[in-house]
Amino acid sequence: MAPSRVSPPPPSSISDGLTKQQLEDWDTNGYLLIPDALSQTEVKTLLAESNKMLNEFPLDEHPLTRFSTGEKSDHVGDEYFLTSGNQIRFFFEEDAFDVDGKLTKPKHLAINKIGHYLHNLSPSFNKVSINKQNARIARDLGFHDPRVLQSMIICKQPEIGGRVPPHQDSVFLYTDPPSAVGFWYALEDCTVDNGCLSFAAGSHKRAPIRDRFVKTEDGKGTTFTSNTGSQWPTGLEEDKEVKKEVYELGEVKAGTLVLIHGNLLHKSEKNTSMKGRMIYTFHMIEGENSYDARNWLQVEEEFTRLNDVLR
User: Fold this and answer.
1) Close Cβ partners of 222 (under 8 Å, ≥ 6 residues apart)
2) Single pTM value for the model
3) Superfamily assignment of 16-310 in CATH?
């Protein structure tokens, strides 16, 4: 069955937080499309900063780490990836290399993502991440101590931008109980042709966090393992409905903010078009919940407190 299309609601200001209708939609669907959350001036600034980083990072000093969008993740479980929690680093598309391991694209058209500490190390991205607007959204979503982590530019390059299979963000950023929420900002128009997101609406209430993406026991790699902690929602057996979810296309214009519940199943298809699909995203967790040392993303300092901007 082909995915159905979802049109964003009419533009509305979110400077004061979310409306009652938006919160009802969030509770029902597990995601929310908010047009014009970024001004076009902000979009241009972030695109310019992204392109500057893509063009200026030194290729001769790079380990040519690739980022996998599937379940096999051995090649991302190296030191360059595992120590990127407080750095700005560059990860290549899997399809950017030939059989001999040589790049087939210019470096600025070969990167899958840039991460994972843009929200603190880049002034431009810090400004759109650590601000009162996002703090008020977090408050309205029920956060008591929202912490920001794992910020990324995802490039979805023309022709080679990889498919991202159905997944849940809390698998990768697990707290006990699960609390992750993704803040996903479109920096270019995202369409079915260049690999927009698709959502299994309501699956956040049907799909517990049964697995976790963690460091291997020797601390040198990453792997998926069964989740023995809180899975939320509770009391569900292996859900046959999850295996036949219907996905809704979320085509959005540049400047749109997409909020994504950590339990929500969502995906995107490969970008086979000649048009890129650059976005900026960061994740938020509840600071009062347990975030243990098994999670792949670790930093020596505490994760960024969003509530500080309201003081």
Assistant:
1) 73, 74, 76, 77, 81, 82, 213, 214, 215, 216, 296
2) 0.90
3) q2cbj1_9rhob like domain (2.60.120.620)
